[in-house]
Amino acid sequence: MNTTDSTNAAERFDFTPLAEESIELDSAVTRLHAQLEQQALDAHLLDLAYTTVDTPVGSLLLAATEAGLVRVAYDIEDHDAVLETLAARVSARILRAPKRLDALAFELDEYFAGTRRAFDVPLDLSLSSGFRQLVQRHLPAIAYGRTETYKQVAESVGSPRAVRAVGSACATNPLPVVVPCHRVLRSDGGLGGYIGGLAAKTALLALEARAH
Amino acid sequence: MKPPFEKMVAEHGAAVLRVCRAVLGIPDADDAWSETFLSALGAYPELPQDANVEAWLVTIAHRKAIDQTRMRSRQPIPVEELPERASRTGSAKEGAAGGEAHDDSSDSLALWHSVGLLPEKQRLAVAYHYLGGLPFAEVAELLGGSVEAARRASSDGVRALRLVYLPESVSGTATHEPKGILR
What we know:
The complex is a heterodimer of chains A (212) and B (183).
Chain A: H1 3-12, H2 19-42, E1 48-55, E2 58-64, E3 69-74, H3 79-89, E4 94-96, H4 102-112, H5 130-138, E5 148-149, H6 150-156, H7 163-171, E6 184-185, H8 198-211
Parallel strand pairs in A: 1-4, 5-6
Antiparallel strand pairs in A: 1-2, 2-3
Helix pairs in contact in A: 5-7, 6-7
Chain B: H1 5-24, H2 26-43, H3 53-72, H4 110-116, H5 120-131, H6 136-143, H7 147-164
């Protein structure tokens, strides 16, 4: 045997899967992935589970820790980028595992159908802290179909002059839709900003006005 | 910044499954794959930022395969069973001698049959180097023995594969290998 020959032989053998094997591999990996999701949940190794759901305001990324829902992200936030950030800030032990988000996905369906006015899944507010978290904790107190101004929210949380800080607390809300920062408007009636874009904010307000 | 583990499954899941199939045979590959990724998920936060993830996964798969083999207290078996939907002719057991073309040579899984017929060392060397992308130095570490021995086992394995695995009806041109394949 001579080494040059064997190198050539190796180079001439193509291990790339043929089309048929690729299809079979994909379906096998999909099946194994589903098993892995369950095994990871059972072993408490899944720090973050996520899924995406289609809604009237576009695809929403939902991510939950064992403690609760930690992130809802709009398409325009770039779901891949959001997952990268979650990997850095929370944990890289992340799998697409819809099961942990089943209850929320169901509640979101009801919400967008106009038959649900509040969410009762557990929340994990660990992505925000201090004043921002204080504001975000207050937001669910704004009733479905109602709105408050940034100024009113500032007053409600006991910092009447912190209007701008309320604005940034709303803008950085890690749980849009579920924590209703869309119900906060400017004092002059303007929409203010929204993490999902103004069209999404308008759509949510219109949905709630209709169903109210 | 470390990417989400999901990305590791998406990028390396298929390659690791092929390694497991080559090492353990198709029936036992699924369990090894599951154990590999579950164990990798647990250890992922401690993996160095610049690590070669595929090599890391293949190394874990190797250890899981050893565990499985020990548990069964017998040698890894060649691939005898092909998934039903891929097995069309039932002739997969022919061709070991290298002279006969497979009737099911167009079968995408014929390769797994052929890989399963290789002697263990060649089979593992081919699996870890060609399917798992490990450099020969790391293959040698997993198999024991020298780097040169790993290289030789791997190229002997590939040479043997060229003799027995004949996709399409392409004839080889090498004089020693009248039915070798050139893909």
